[in-house]
Amino acid sequence: MNTTLNDPMDELAPTTSSEPATEKTERFVKPVAPVEIPETASLSVDAATKVCTRNLDFYYGNNQVLFDVSLDIPEKSVTALIGPSGCGKSTFLRTLNRMNDIIEGTRHTGEVLLEGTDIYASEIDVVLLRKRVGMVFQKSTPFPKSIFENIAYGPKVAGLRNKARLAEIVEASLKRAALWDEVKDRLQDSAMALSGGQQQRLCIARTLATNPDVILMDEPASALDPASTARVEDLIFELRKNYTIVIVTHNMQQAARVSQQTAFFFQGILVETGVTKELFTNPVEKQTEDYITGRFG
Amino acid sequence: MSIHLERDLEILHHDILHMCSVVEEMIHRAVSGLRTPSLDLAGELAEADNEIDRMDVQIEDACLKILALHQPVAIDLRRISTVLKIGGELERVADLSVNIAERGAGLVGNSEIVVSDRLQDMAHLALQMLHRSIDSYVELDSTGAREILAEDDRVDQLNAEIIAALIDVMRTSPFLVEPALHLFSATRHIERVADHATNIAEDVVFMVDGVIIRHRSNAEISV
């Protein structure tokens, strides 16, 4: 067992409220010049780097799909990966918790560092890694079990047997996934009976139950109706206060809405990375501009 | 880019250029009217101003529709926000042209007071600034737009000199107070035209370079 990766099951981090400080009314009574509109703390991307890749190349057999990708992912923020189909963004996402390992014939060069530790190092426990770096997929994948069992599954696999503790984790996870109020009276009902949007939030709650640091989301709202999409986006907004989130999306407006950093991939190359609001108003690279304005891709 | 967005942007571009040309003609007529005062000009320009108000609303409507339907980003977003703001600037220039023409009407029958060469120079400079700011929008020329900004200082300087001279006239020739006051106001209006041209130039810099340069010093802007 690797000792450099702490077991996330040790403690379920408490939910903390990090509401931005409200502007004092005095400002409007007695304006100061020059007037500066401060960024809310929650929009900052100056946080420490949680995950980073260095010169990452990735291959499916002889087919190289990622070329020399170096990207820093800041802690407790949302990073959106955008680009046309086949550009390598989902492959890149899956390298961050070694989900590509299950595909035969894949290999990589370069490094993927989680808090400075190379996750591809031989001593890394992949199960433990995936607890710390959870994943939510495009299609919701509830187990054919009760809502309670879906959430309790991860902690149980990790060896937790204490029923009271399991119940606590289930409740905390469902609350964080903004699903608790809708399901608290029917935790023993089948998860398969939930709506599509609820199932996706259930999957997010299931990921949260193992208390990850990082959550990877591969088009989590692409199969949802607008109302469910909005709920998932609201949830991402809340979760980023406590988690580092990386999201792949084809929806430009969604990337612009939910993320603080955006990375644009094209043909396996990381073309441009930037603060989202800047990348969507004034991208540096022509290729990025052409893609996000729909001129190609 | 979707064909719908492309078409909507083309229509918007056409509309704002049409508004530019009408407003430019209005302000030219108003300024010329100071030298050859007319009682009719203000009424004619007020009528044209009604049409400009209608265009202003129509352009704002079109911009909001594009924002809502296409959710544009990058250059498309910057262009639409720029058109929204330029529309507002032009609408105010059109208002000023009516105001200047009204001041011109006040000069009818007052042949004792002359429109100084300095005032004509200032008017020429302000109109040039407006023309060039519109050109810089059409040609996506942020360098040209930045050059316009420095010229506003010259207009401000001429404005101060003309105002001082008019105060002197009022002091030494009290019977000319009324026409001098009309010229005083017209001078202030022309100075405002240069300010609007400056605003348009700043909007063009944002559209082309993605940088907001409002409220910065000239030294910072030229960097």
How would you describe this protein?
The complex is a heterodimer of chains A (297) and B (223). The longest helix of chain A is centred in the middle third of the chain and has 14 residues, at 163-176. The model of chain A is unreliable at 9-45 (pLDDT under 50). In chain A, the strands form two sheets. A six-stranded mixed sheet of chain A has the order 6-7-8-3-9-10, sandwiched between helices. Chain A has a four-stranded antiparallel sheet with strand order 2-1-4-5, covered by helices on one side. Helix content of chain A is 31%, strand content 23%. Chain A starts with 25 loop residues before the first helix and ends in a 5-residue tail after the last helix. Chain A is of the alpha/beta class and 297 residues long. Chain A has eleven helices and ten strands. Chain A has a domain at 39-141 and 214-292: P-loop containing nucleotide triphosphate hydrolases (Rossmann fold), CATH 3.40.50.300. The radius of gyration of chain A is 20 Å and the shape is globular. Chain B has helices at 3-35, 41-70, 74-106, 117-138, 142-172, 177-209, 218-222. Helix content of chain B is 84%, strand content 0%. Chain B is mainly alpha-helical and 223 residues long. In chain B, helix 1 (3-35) runs antiparallel to helix 2 (41-70), helix 3 runs antiparallel to helix 6 (177-209) and helix 5 runs antiparallel to helix 6. Chain B is globular, with a radius of gyration of 19 Å. Chain B has one domain: Methane Monooxygenase Hydroxylase, Chain G, domain 1 (Up-down Bundle), CATH 1.20.58.220. The interface between A and B is medium-sized, with 14 and 15 residues.
Mean pLDDT of chain B comes to 93
Spatial sequence of strands, sheet with the most strands of chain A: 6-7-8-3-9-10
CATH superfamily of the domain at 39-141 and 214-292 in chain A: P-loop containing nucleotide triphosphate hydrolases
| Elements of chain B, N to C (H/E) | HHHHHHH
CATH architectural name of chain B = Up-down Bundle
Give the largest chain-chain interface (CB within 8 Å): A-B, 14 and 15 residues
